[in-house]
Design brief:
The structure is a homodimer. By secondary structure, the first copy, chain A, is of the alpha+beta class. Chain A has two domains: 176 residues, GAF domain (Beta-Lactamase, 2-Layer Sandwich); 190 residues, Hypothetical protein af1432, CATH 1.10.3210.10. Chain A contains 15 helices and six strands. Chains A and B meet through helix 1 and helix 6 of A and helix 1 and helix 6 of B.
């Protein structure tokens, strides 16, 4: 008897561990069993936790003998399931597997009446599915699934070492499924936390935004525009940013005006121009933002955008009067988006202009107030009709 | 030749997949190899990405022959590493493994001069470590580690199927290491995101807190006290809460006054009592908080604490006048913590009282304004000197 398919199947089972979506690989395994072991059909019953049911997930075989997927569902009352889940006499199994001709003989041996009843019902199930061997997969005490094998195409029996090999294979499959589930759970959890963070920041930033009557909706527009500018810059020079940069830009955009929470409403919402004292208070907002966010180590890079978004390319900005490329790019991007949005909305000191007029203004101050490449990116977005 | 250790080692290697800290299991594997295969010593060289070096991570063997851990470090220049990493003539290996007596003979065979040079240097390395077989572990193209085996204690050669088995084992180990690293990375990422969320919420809540001159530091004290009360309630009745409840309570505590951001500063910081109109505006803050947080699906349960933290047990609270157990427990807990903190701090309408006086007041209104069991938990915390 040859186990020449052994190595191929083993390596497929091992690879499942690193493919964290084992469905595809289980299909491959079943297909390989059908072809290499030359059985009439093969399938895998997989446990569905939500439904407490075993569902035929993959099934392959000669035409007519393939059990329709989703057709076979076995709940915990099913005799086959009860047999593998329960504490029955181990001797009805071959090394843990239920093999039809072996088990059939057991009906006439010395086993308890209950086990005999259950076994009879299970064998009847196997007859319906034309299944010769059922190989269970456990993780610890839990039955994760059952590999179902039809008869061999040459009608020979399964050899002992073949069955042993399938038992080992089924345990690999169980391990892979378990591992994939743990991964999936972790990934879902991570996704959830990411969304929670962004959503909460958005909500709180919007609430703070709403305090300043003149800048309603400003934050979300600045975020959107900043990200568009960054993507435009990336088109030209791929190496400038990575995912992390975009994530930081997103956060910095959301929080760039967070320091305004520390500015009195009377200044924030004053109609008409601010006096020198008020202007000074207002210009404190980037550093107030830094004070709020500084304790959060993970936001270190994003905070640069908050701190320097009122710096100007020619050095005439605040709080530090940084010049040119000394200003972190994250801040230069927010600055352009912020300036553009200020021009197209009503402010105490001016009426809203059209986007076209705003773009002309941006072009005029590019290289003076604003970083020239960043300003150019915005101009291009406008020309392409994207803003 | 017997491979009677095979099953044990195989099952150990498989189990590594689910133990996401493989160090312990690698140690076990090496120890088992030494004992079962009866080699003089065995060790694993593991790749350290940060240092671009292979470090002897575990090593076991007869006294004197055990290579001191951390002693053996091989960088990418080491001939042994270059041999396994490079594209050398495959025929110097036995099924991918470098076996001393086999490889030694190769020096006189038809291999390129470069390979011969490298092989000579590698064999010299093996002599130094008294190593008879080096079995590499790859993940895709990357050399993750090398299993080093000393000679057998009975001085026999390794049989072909033994070597084949070790090659398969080494590939299991590589798979387990790779899998564990992916898990570790995901877990670290998840931890980071959790911290980021909590830290940002803390920072923003504190900033909003700071707007209300009377309640500086109030939020963090309410969070602390609420969590202490919940733990006290859990001591009495384990089934009341789970981790998720505590997490929601933490978030709800942080955000319970978030709606105050929508209340004018003139009302928030008014000295002396509020008039009816102002009081009405002030009492809007729980529902304003709900409006801010409502879009965040993940905060659904926490929002109940924000919405109902001004409800009273006897139904005299706001916004809905809920009574008794109709008030979500999360809100009843925040309510007790909030009330206690209000009493012990200066407010526009009263001077701060001592903790003892505050506890007496809580006792007096327990079952009227406040949920009796929750109030009792606070009284017990006070008696135990915990608050």
């Amino acid at each position: 008897m040859s186990l020449d398919y052994k190595r191929e199947l083993e390596s497929a089972a091992k690879n499942m561990i690193l493919v964290h979506e084992p469905d595809v690989l289980m299909q491959m395994i079943v297909r390989m069993i059908v072809h290499k072991v030359k059985v009439r059909h093969a399938g895998i019953l997989l446990y569905d936790e939500d439904k407490d049911t075993y569902i035929l997930t993959v099934s392959r075989g000669s035409v007519g003998l393939k059990i329709p997927k989703g057709f076979a569902r076995m709940d915990s009352d099913n005799p086959l399931i009860r047999l593998f889940r329960g504490r029955v006499d181990k001797k009805i199994f071959h090394n843990g597997a239920l093999v039809y001709p072996v088990a059939k003989k057991m009906l006439h041996k010395n086993i308890s009446g209950d086990t005999k009843q259950l076994l009879k019902a299970a064998l009847y199930q196997m007859e319906i599915f034309e299944t010769v061997a059922c190989i269970p997969s456990y993780f610890r005490q839990d039955l994760l699934g059952i590999l179902l094998l039809g008869s061999k195409r040459n009608d020979r029996k399964f050899a002992k070492d073949e069955l042993n090999f399938f038992v080992a294979l089924a345990s690999d499959v169980a391990m892979a499924i378990r591992n994939a589930r743990l991964f999936r759970e972790l990934e879902l959890e991570l996704d959830k936390k990411k969304r929670l963070f962004i959503h909460t920041t958005v909500a709180l930033a919007a609430a703070i935004d709403a305090k300043d009557h003149y800048t309603h909706g400003h934050t979300s527009r600045v975020v959107h525009l900043s990200l568009e500018i960054a993507k435009k810059l990336m088109q030209k020079n791929k190496s400038v940013f990575d995912e992390k940069f975009l994530e930081n830009l997103h956060i910095a955009g959301l929080l760039h005006d967070i320091g305004k929470i520390a500015i009195p409403e009377s200044i924030l919402n004053k109609e008409g121009p601010l006096n020198d004292e008020e202007k000074k208070r207002m210009e404190e907002h980037p550093l107030r933002g830094v004070t709020i966010l500084e304790p959060i180590k993970e936001l270190e890079d994003a905070v640069l955008g908050v701190k320097y978004h009122h710096e100007k390319y020619d050095g005439s900005g605040y709080p530090e009067g940084l010049k040119g490329d000394k200003i972190p790019l994250i801040a230069s991007i927010i600055s352009v988006a912020d300036t553009f949005d200020a021009i197209i909305t009503n402010r105490p000191y001016h009426q809203a202009l059209s986007k076209k007029e705003a773009v002309e203004e941006i072009e005029r101050v590019s290289g003076k107030q604003l970083h020239p490449q960043v300003a150019t990116a915005l101009l291009e977005l406008f020309r392409e009709g994207k803003i």
